[in-house]
Amino acid sequence: MILIAKNMGNTNETTKSDEPEAEAKENPVYVKVDETTRHKIDKYKELGITMSKLIQDAVTLYDDFSSLKPEIKGVIEKYKQEEESVIDFLEKAVKFYGDQRDLDRDLFLRMREEMKMMLIGKTTFNQLIAAAKEPKDARELPIKRNVAFDLIMWYNKSRPLKHLTIEEIIETVKKIWVVANYFYVIDVSQESEDEFHLLFRHRQDKNYSEYWLNYFTELFNSKELGFKCMIEGQAFDESISMTIKIGYEE
Known about the structure:
Elements: E1 2-4, H1 20-26, E2 29-31, H2 35-46, H3 51-66, H4 70-79, H5 86-102, H6 105-115, H7 122-132, H8 140-144, H9 148-155, H10 166-179, E3 185-192, E4 195-201, H11 206-220, E5 227-235, E6 239-249
Antiparallel strand pairs: 1-2, 3-4, 4-6, 5-6
Helix pairs in contact: 9-10
């Protein structure tokens, strides 16, 4: 049994501390703890931490954690392993955050927003250089040699393309091509069970729209996928409208 109390001293004088409200706050608190908790308390007492300070810090920490926003608690519950303690999870989360900051991961986000820079892969870069040597309108090479499949499989943890659903591939395109800043937003709506509409928004020109319309038409018509699609699309000055209708699974 642990007794936590403030030493009032021996006095018969009447002070403000004798008032009922003050007495209630200074009443001793009795707490029964198990042996494990007792050992933890003794460990910190040996370091010179008083019981009142230890209890105060513990209650404050508990209150801070209990006051976390529901969405933050949801993230913890979603990603914490079943056998993992909350402290172990938070340690990994803080370390991960520090590692990302050390790598200046936010630098690309700043360049993306402030300089409108795009993330481009080595293969795509080489294809565009090769296309630049051809006549002005020669875009067939970078369109036909589609590198999107590598990104799609990477994002989906190396699962084979034919095992991915149309929803998974569309979600990957929506995520990756916005992060890379090719488009500042990709809106997706499911018109029916087998029909999807995609609206790609950018800040370039109609030539840019025509290139990506052909690029994604090539992608969704590929025999590498586990389904057959019918594509309808229109290229505008700063957007691309594309409708994808699912035919049948191969």
